[in-house]
Structures are given as C-alpha cells and as structure tokens.
Design a protein that fits this description.
The complex is a heterotrimer of chains A (about 425), B (about 325) and C (about 210).
Chain A: E1 28-31, E2 35-39, E3 49-50, E4 57-58, E5 63-66, E6 75-76, E7 81-89, E8 97-104, H1 124-133, H2 146-150, E9 160-165, H3 174-181, H4 183-197, E10 201-207, H5 211-221, E11 227-232, H6 241-249, E12 264-268, H7 269-281, E13 287-294, E14 300-305, H8 310-316, E15 324-329, E16 336-337, E17 351-356, H9 357-360, H10 373-377, H11 384-392, H12 396-401, H13 412-416, H14 425-435
Parallel strand pairs in A: 1-14, 9-10, 9-12, 10-11, 13-17
Antiparallel strand pairs in A: 2-8, 3-5, 4-7, 5-6, 7-8, 13-14, 15-16, 15-17
Chain B: H1 17-39, H2 41-64, H3 75-85, H4 94-108, H5 121-132, H6 134-137, H7 173-178, H8 190-203, H9 209-224, H10 229-235, H11 238-245, H12 256-276, H13 283-300
Helix pairs in contact in B: 1-2, 1-3, 1-8, 2-3, 2-4, 3-4, 3-5, 4-5, 5-13, 8-11, 9-10, 9-11, 9-12, 12-13
Chain C: H1 7-15, H2 28-33, H3 38-62, H4 71-93, H5 95-101, H6 112-122, H7 127-157, E1 159-160, E2 163-164, H8 179-210
Helix pairs in contact in C: 1-7, 3-4, 3-6, 3-7, 4-5, 4-6, 6-7
Classes of the chains: A alpha/beta (about 425), B mainly alpha (about 325), C mainly alpha (about 210).
Chain lengths: ~425, ~325, ~210
C-alpha cells in the first residue's frame, strides 16, 4: 500500500518514537474527579452564558451554559451534583474565564437524553442540530464548533469528509487508543456527518506508526457506504488540515482559504466518536480521552470529565518522579504551556505532558548559520530564514508579500533550527492582521 | 510550583550549531589522519598552528568587541582546520597563523561573525595567501610516507615537486586515490575525503547536491574539453573543495535547486581556470566566485508556496 | 552655507572635517590606483593639490562670467589645462613618478574631488576662500594618500618611501599592493580613521556640554 504524504515536514523526536512509546499500549481508563471547574469559553468564538447559579443541583449532561449566537455551543455538566460557585478564574492564557464549579455526588444521574436513532436511519436534517446541542467542538485541539463547520455558506460545495486520525503530534496517543478500542464509534460518527452534509465520500486517514489502529478502522469500515481508509507516512505536520488534504486528495487549499474551498471538511476522529454519542445516545460532550505522559509515574490514557483539574490528572497518574519544570497541553510541537496546575481540562486537550526542570530549560538562541534546515522543513514551502530576517527588521509589509500569512504555525522551522531561533511568525501574523497591512 | 511558560516547540532537534560543526570535524578526521601520515609531523604542526590561531583570534575578537564568546560552537576550529588542510606541509609556520587570523578577523568577524560572512573564511584566506605568497603556498612536496605498494618512491627529505595536476599521467590511479602524490595536506587522499563525505551524508550534515554536481560537472566538462575526467577529479583539490568548502552553509544557496546551480557553476569555473587561466588549480577561486553570486541565486530560485499560483517572471 | 566661514576654517575643514578621502570618500579611483607606495601617494596628492588650487582660483575668478548652463564644460576646460601643465611638469622632472602613475595623471581631469570643489565651492565663493579650500582639500587628499600608501607599502613591500625598514627576513604580503588588497586596506583604514574621529568628536562634544 502506498503511503500518502506531502512535501516538507519533519519527524520530531524520531529517536524517542515521537514520545508515544510510554502510552501507546495503555488502554483507556475512566477517571472521575471529586470536583470539576468547567470554563464556558472552551470553544472558539463567543463564550457561552451560564444558566445555573450557586446551590443549583445539576444532573450529568444538563446544560449549564447556553450558546451565545448561532455559531455558539452549549456547555454541559460533566458530573452530577451541586453547583458550588460560578467564578472567574485564569485558565490557559488571555483574560480569566467564567467557570462553573460542580461538586461531584458520584451518582452520575443522567438527564433525559433525546436519542435520534441509528446513524444510518436517523433523520439527516436533524443531525447537525444534535451535534450543536451536544456541544461538540473540534477535539483535535482547535475546538472550532463542529456544527458551524458543517453548515456551508452559500455557493460552497463539499464532496469529501476527511477524518483525521494521523495524530502526527508528539506524545499523544489518545486518538490512537480510541481508534484501536472503539473503531465502530469513529466510523459511525463519520457516517452520521456524511449523511448530515449529504456527502458521498468519507476517508479516514491514519499514520503508519499506528498500524494496529489502521487495521481496526479498516475492519470496522469494511462494507460501510462511501468510506475508505488512507495510510499516511509518519511525518509532522501530517495532521495539519492543509497537509492532510494535499496528501489524501492531492488538492491544495488556496492561500487564505478554508478546507471547504478545496471541497473538503476535516474532522478529528475523537470528534466523530462524539458525534456518534450525540446521535445514537443523545449524550453531550462531557468527557474526552486525554493522554497524560512525561515524567508522571504511570503514563496513561484517561477518559477525563471536562473540567477536571490538571493537578488531579497528575495525581491520577501516580504523581511525578521529580519536580516538574513545565506542563503543556497537546504535543510538544504546538502544545500550550500551563501557568500552573489548577487549569481545567477542556474539550480540546488531547494530551498533558509533564516535563522535568532539565528539559524545560531555556535554549540559548545563537546566530543563523543559513543551514536551510527550516526551508527544507516548511510544509508550506515558505522561506522561514528570510521571513525571520524581515520580521525581526519590522518589515512586515514585505513579509506579507512573501506569504507569511500562509504560515500554519507548525513550529517545524523552530524544531530543526540548530541556532534555536524562535521564529516570530505568530506575532507577525497577529500584527499584520491587526494593522491590516 | 515554578513552571516555565513558553510557546512550542517544547522539544527541539538534537542538532545545534555546535553538533553540526562537530560532525564536520569528525568527517575531517580521516583526511587529517591521512595528511599527517603522508606528510609527517610537519603537517601536524601546520594544522595545529592554524586551528589554534583561528580559535584564539575568534576568542580575542569576541572579548575585545564585548560580544558573547562563542568559541565553543567550534566554527572557528572548523575554519582553522580546513585552512590548514589547504596548505602544503612545507609552508613556514607563520603562514597558517596569518591565514587563520585573516580568515577569522577579516572575513568572518568584520562582517558580523558567524552566519554573516559572504565568502567562505578559509577559502578567502587561502585566496589572499595564494596571491600574497605564491612561492611559499605552492611548495608541494612528495609524501614522506606512502600508503600501500606503489610505484611512487617516498621522499623523507621533503623533495619539492610540481602539483599532480601538472602531470597527472605520472601517477597511477591507485596513487591518486590514496594520496601518494604531491599536494596540500588535505587534498591528496581522495579516499579519506570520500569517507568524510559519506559520514556527513549519513548524519545529515550536508546534502549530496553541491558535491555531486560540482565534481560531476568538472568531470563532464574536462571530458568534453578532451582531458581524462578521472584524472581531473583525482589529481587536484576538486574533491576536497566540493565536499568540505563548497558545502559551507553560510556561503551557499538556501534551496536545493540553488545548490545544484552553485555546484555546476563551481565546476565550470574550475575547468575554465585550469584550461585557460594562469593558475594550475582553480577550486579556491571557483568557490569564492560562486559565493559572491549566492545572494543572486537565492533571489532567482523561489518555491511555489502551498495554495498559491506560481508567479511568472 | 549659512554663515561666512573664515579662511582658516575653510582650510582646516578641507584637511579634517571634510577630508575628501575619509569623510567625503570622493575620488576612490586614484586613491586605489596611486597608493601602491607612499611615494606614489605623495606624487598623486601633490599633483591633485596643484590642480585643485589652480582650478579653484581660476574658476572663482571667472564665476561671474561663466553662464550657468555651460559651467561644467567650462570647469572641465580650466581643470584639464592645469592637469596638462602638471602632466608635462611631472614627465619632465620626475619621469619615474610619471611611469608609476601613468594614466592616472590625465585622469585627474575627471577626479570627482576637483570637479566637486569647483561646483560646490569655487563657483560660489571669493578667490581667497577658494584658494584656501583648494589648498585644504589638496592637503587632506595628500595626507590621506600618503597614509594609505605607507600602510600598503609596509605590508606589501616592507618599506616606506622606498626605504627598506623591515629587513630582508620579512615576507611581504603581495596582495597589499595589488588592486584587491587596495580595496581591503582602504576599507580597513577608512573604518579605523572614522572610528577614531567619531570618538574624538564624542569626547569633545561631552566636554562642550560640561563647560
């Protein structure tokens, strides 16, 4: 079988098996916390509006915050119990978020769930509404509301839904375990999405370092209408939307465009599984699989309730062997560093990595030696070496002309740089967008 | 809990400037060893002087200019060693010292230090010395010892001889390959250079593009102009230049297609100088000339950015 | 020019503040070509000074008679007259210098310094001021040429004004008296002189504030 891929890219932490060795064979185990702290702004877009107050008793899956606007999604209680507070609390970055604290009564009493039916027979026009009501947003990390992705603007057409099971980021094995243990949920979710959008073709794309998951999905997808599988080369950022579309369909997303401009919608496999739950069981998005790895004593794949604090996750994995120097959500390439360990797990957090002091130490930046490794690594075919010079010199107009806005912030250039240059493209893109250069 | 906040990537590749330079030094070990074996202790002195004075010059400059001292990135050591390998073993010892100082101070630091020089420091220093002290820089001697059974008689008294380029037919292919010929310390043993090349390819220090196109175009052009292509490659400094000097990151183009243009350009200039120029060998000047057009090559070679339509013109 | 300068000021200005070689970087062609030795530098400097002085005086005298439209050709005619005189004088009395400088003597005609001073100064100022300017500029040019010539001669030949000073064991660095070495050393000397001058200026400016 030919392995699909794209030009450029890197193989991060190759000598350490992408950091996945510790957890790739760890089965998913559920973890139920004593208390959850659920931020209402987990998804991209306007924050939801809390509709419970201190002292309210809530059931599992009950809506605790209403969506703001048509692109918003509701937030659900991830445990049953008493609302102890609605507070403002610092989460990952930016302004403090409004959070709903719920003490777990350990009863897990569900609210009444509205079941649409089997994914093949449920009314197709109701599926997108069910996805919205279930509060599903992209679980690969971006957390863009899924229903908003599936409602196309006038004049746009989509012929393929791509299910992203590449999991090219380091350390994460959450999607790997999901595809291996529950391939039917993934395939069913894709069928539901295809029927909802009226798309005939669905492709599940998986990197070759997860052959067992690939075989499981292939078996589960056998005989399902319109669904095929694609084996991808192990390469970062294979799971970037643009790279995935290029690898699987051969199409390119036009500069400045969205995947739908290449007639493709990309969904994460975990999102697909959540869609299955929403359609067949009426259950909202209240938990997700998160890989906890690094210097924790028992690296695990946990089924975590949304709103569980990071410190509880670390305790659930046996604590750490030495003092942590850095914590980050996601893989090591694009992961977000945590200010402290009281931050809550949201729908986007597929992985938590605990790093020791030594690996967290700052690496000194030296002079560029023009080795051109960044150029070979760039999956967008940019010239990071030159763009870095332009951005450092403040020449953002020229940087924009040389396509800095097409940068996907994959950090491949930074990863390979022997001079440890911190390529300032995120700041440059933000400045250009703000100033409308 | 004291946690460090930073944007990704949270882990970076193993390669740093220091490890890359170390890999070049490792790749130069066979060449250095062969040179010292063939030309004796005298060659070791030349190499030691050039390396030490290069490192010292960089250290003193960075101290005086109140810059961070980064001698441990090994780039000065690489420059010094390559410069030393580019000299005949019988040069007076002040020559490698002056050469290293020229390379580090004039060519590298005055233009802003590592990454900023527009010509390869070792190459330009060698070029300046070749023009300034032509007599001393071209005193080639027959090796004091030889590798393997051969028709070449070793000359322990350092008998001077013309470079093998003048009359390559005097030596058989085996002698040319293992370095039983007169020449500079580093350029004679082609076998050692090839080992170093394969090492750098294996660990990913360099790509094949420049060395292969450089050597290939020298061979092809020599053949077209009626010389023996094997002799053209094996008798002079082409192999050493193509593997260790043309591949200097700072002074060659950024894209692979640029590397190919660079390599072919070097090859053409070498053959032109050998055939029609005043010097018997042209590797130094070929690389220097191509160094100066590197910014132009970078400007002309562009890749199509993902999701854009190729621009014409 | 805002305020009227004194003649002494004009003279000093030409030697130091607006030194044609190190501050204005004019006439790089003779700077590079005629500094292979200190003697050559001196010869070229004196020749240029003579032309500068003469052309400045004459052009200043004629400044009210030359129509603006044809002033450049008129200046060139004046300058080339003096250059021809200089060329003949050198050829007659210092033939060795004539051989060494060769084409660069007639090329003084198009030397930027001379035309620039005619255009920028002599065409607008009185005769005495123009003479002072010509002398100052010429002296500045000559001193700079001698300095560069000495450095190149010491490095490239081990001698100063033809006198061997470094002994027979010295191995001269030939590139210093060749064209590429001329560029490299001119650049280095330019940098060193300017860094010294700017340091002095900074120090005197600091004093001025204190006083």
């Amino acid at each position: 079988m030919s392995k699909l891929s794209f030009r450029g890219g890197i193989h991060p932490l190759k000598e350490k098996h992408e950091g996945k060795e510790a957890t790739k064979s760890k089965p998913i185990r559920p973890y139920v916390p004593e208390e959850v702290c659920i931020p209402v702004d987990m998804h991209l877009g306007a924050p939801s509006i809390p509709c419970v107050k201190k002292g309210d008793l809530v059931k599992l899956g009950q809506v605790v915050a209403e969506p703001a606007g048509p692109r918003g999604i509701p937030v659900h209680a991830s445990v049953s119990g008493e609302v102890t507070a609605v507070i403002s609390k610092q989460q990952l970055y930016g302004k403090p978020s409004t959070c709903i604290l719920i003490r777990n009564d350990k009863q897990d009493t569900w609210v009444d769930c509205h079941i649409l039916g089997d994914v093949e027979t449920a009314p197709a026009d109701k599926i997108i509404g069910a996805i919205r009501d279930a509060g599903i947003c992209g679980m690969g990390g971006a957390c863009f509301p899924t229903h908003a992705k599936m409602v196309l603007p006038e004049g746009k057409t989509v012929d393929t839904i791509l299910l992203n099971g590449s999991e090219c980021e380091t350390f994460i094995t959450a999607d790997h375990r999901l595809m291996l243990e529950e391939p039917q949920r993934v395939v069913n979710g894709l069928r539901a999405a295809m029927r909802a959008m009226g798309v005939q073709k669905g492709v599940i794309a998986i990197e070759e370092n997860k052959m067992d998951a690939y075989e499981a999905i292939k078996k589960a997808a056998a005989g399902r209408e319109g669904i095929s599988t694609a084996l991808l080369k192990t390469k970062y950022p294979q799971g970037g939307e643009k790279q995935l579309i290029k690898a699987v369909t051969g199409r390119e997303v036009p500069s400045g465009g969205l995947p739908m401009d290449a007639h493709v919608v990309v969904l994460n496999v975990a999102t697909a599984a959540a869609i299955t739950d929403a359609v067949t069981e009426g259950k909202p998005s209240i938990a997700r699989i998160t890989t906890v790895t690094g210097i924790v004593n028992e690296p695990s794949n946990l089924l975590v309730r949304i709103g569980t604090s990071v410190s509880e996750l670390i305790t659930a994995c046996g604590g750490t062997s030495e003092e942590p120097g850095k914590l980050f959500f996601g893989g090591s390439m694009t992961g977000l560093a945590l200010p402290d360990d009281s931050v809550s797990v949201t729908k986007a957090n597929n992985c938590l990595v605990v790093v020791n002091k030594k690996d967290a130490a700052l690496q000194e930046t030296t002079e560029c030696i023009r080795c051109s490794r960044c150029i070979a690594a760039c999956p967008i075919m940019l010239n990071p070496q030159r763009l870095n010079i332009l951005c450092e010199a403040g020449n953002l107009g020229q940087a924009k002309k040389e396509n800095v806005m097409d940068c996907i912030l994959c950090h491949s250039c930074h990863y390979v740089c022997p001079a440890r240059i911190n390529f300032p493209f995120k700041e440059a893109k933000e400045k250009i967008a703000a100033r409308r250069i | 809990m004291n946690l460090r906040m930073s944007a990704g990537p949270h882990f970076v590749a193993r390669e740093s400037t220091q490890t890359l330079m170390l890999d070049v030094l490792i790749a130069l070990i066979p060449t250095t060893a062969a040179g010292v074996y063939l030309f004796g202790l005298r060659a070791a002195w030349v190499l030691a002087v050039s390396v030490i004075s290069a490192v010292l010059a960089e250290f003193v400059w960075q101290k005086l200019a109140r810059k961070p001292v980064r001698v441990n990135d090994l780039s000065a050591a690489v420059t010094g060693l390559i410069l030393g390998l580019n000299m005949p073993a019988e040069v007076p010892l002040w020559l490698p010292a002056i050469g290293s100082i020229i390379a580090i101070l004039l060519v590298k630091q005055l233009f802003g230090g590592i990454g900023q020089n527009f010509m390869n420091p070792a190459m330009l220093a060698r070029g300046i010395m070749l023009v300034s002290w032509p007599a001393q820089m071209t005193v080639y001697t027959l090796p004091m010892r030889v590798l393997g059974s051969t028709s070449v008689v070793p000359s322990p008294d350092a008998v001077s001889a013309a470079t093998a380029l003048i009359r390559p037919s005097a030596y058989n292919p085996y002698d040319l390959l293992v370095g039983n010929i007169p020449g500079t310390v580093g350029e004679v043993c082609k076998l050692a250079i090839i080992i170093g090349f394969l090492y750098m390819l294996f660990v990913g220090t360099i790509s094949w593009h420049i060395p292969v196109t450089f050597v290939g175009s020298v061979a092809l052009l020599s053949w077209i102009l009626g010389s023996d292509p094997w002799m053209a490659i094996l008798s002079g400094g082409v192999l050493f230049g193509a593997v260790f000097m043309a591949t200097d990151y700072v002074t060659n183009p950024l894209l692979k297609v640029g590397h190919i243009i660079f390599g072919i350009g070097c090859g053409i200039i070498v053959v032109v100088i050998r055939k029609f120029g005043g010097y018997p060998e042209g590797v130094t000047f070929a690389i220097l000339l191509m160094n100066t057009v590197t910014p132009l090559i970078d400007r002309w070679t562009k890749r199509r950015v993902y999701g854009t339509v190729k621009k014409h013109g | 020019m805002g305020k009227k300068q004194t003649m002494r000021g004009v003279f000093i200005n030409g030697v130091l503040n607006e030194n044609p070689v190190f501050r204005l970087v004019l006439g790089v062609c003779p700077i590079l070509a005629a500094t292979t030795s200190a003697t050559n530098g001196l010869g070229m400097g004196v020749a240029a000074t003579f032309v500068l002085l003469g052309s400045n005086i004459v052009i200043s005298l004629l400044r009210n008679f030359i129509p603006a439209k044809v002033r450049i050709p008129a200046y060139i005619v004046v300058i080339s007259t003096f250059v021809t005189v200089v060329q003949m004088l050198i050829q007659a009395f210092v033939p060795s210098l004539y051989d060494a400088l060769g084409i660069f003597i007639p090329l003084i005609v198009v030397n930027c310094i001379i035309l620039a001073r005619a255009e920028a100064f002599a065409g607008k100022n009185s005769v005495l001021h123009s003479a002072a300017d010509g002398l100052g500029m010429g002296l500045g040019f000559t001193l700079a040429l001698i300095l560069i010539g000495m450095v190149r001669e010491i490095i490239g030949n081990g001698s100063v004004f033809g006198l061997d000073i470094l002994g027979p064991t010295f191995q001269p660095m030939l590139i210093a008296i060749m064209a590429p070495g001329g560029f490299i050393l001119f650049g280095l000397i330019l940098g060193i002189v300017n860094s010294i001058v700017s340091k002095i200026a900074k120090r005197s400016a600091g004093k001025g504030v204190k006083a």
